[in-house]
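Hi P.,

Sorry for the delay on this. The queue was packed all week, but I finally got your sequence through. Input first:
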Amino acid sequence: MSAGLPPRDELLRKEQEQMMEFIRQKMLLLGEKAMLQKSVREEKKLLVENAKLKGEIEQLKKQLQENQRRKAAKLKALAEAQPASPSHPEPAGGATLTPSATPAPRPAPRSEARKKKGACRRSGGQECELAIWQLDLRVGRILSARQHPEAESLCVQEVDLGEGQPRTAVSRVMTNMPTEQMSESLCVCVCNGRAVRVRGVLSKVHVLCAADSAHLEMIAPPSSAQPGDRVTFNNYPGEPDRELSPRVFGRLQPDLSTDMRGVACYRGVAFEVKGKGLCRAPSVCNGSIK
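Then the structure:
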């Protein structure tokens, strides 16, 4: 036996140490590679988010510019409509009229303003354009839904609007929800439209839906909303018409759409239930509202 050869156990120990060192180096390389890949993914994610934020900023900028333009037009119209105050004439006998003796002009009642607006619309006036506040938009809860007896593409819904008695609505069949599963779903309804008979069923309320080339789905209010809650718009205060002409809704409809986040909007201003949130389409973004 040669005394210069290392023992077998010593050889195994050295091989194990070399193997462990190799594995350690490999793990370090893999860790560095994973960190590099993670940083690349995060960079891509940041780029996507930046692009999205840029788009939202541009949209908000356009909304601000549009609001400023409308405000300026409204102020100009008010300035043109208000006549210059005549100087107080001196009555006969040398008496002078004091400010307290001069009768103050009374503001026109809202009904007269409405009549003037209606006449202005009929005459094609630019300063009295239609506005979303004319629609009586309220939150509804669907109590039941069934297939229309005479049309496969339609369904008949009973909608609770917080009035004590439900109203009947005739709507297109939704693509994202079977008709029999609509019960207890919240929706947004136009409540001051005229009742119309659709294939033999009288529809007394209109359920708003979002649509694109492939989908049709109901606009969903915030989950905390209750039947009868008003849907409002920040930049368009006002009381809805008692009864809405079908032509009014037809002219307002092209300005109703969902934005890139699916939020229902009128000219970029969101449908909102005060204190509870915004109204959205579940999956239709940049779509129309019908």
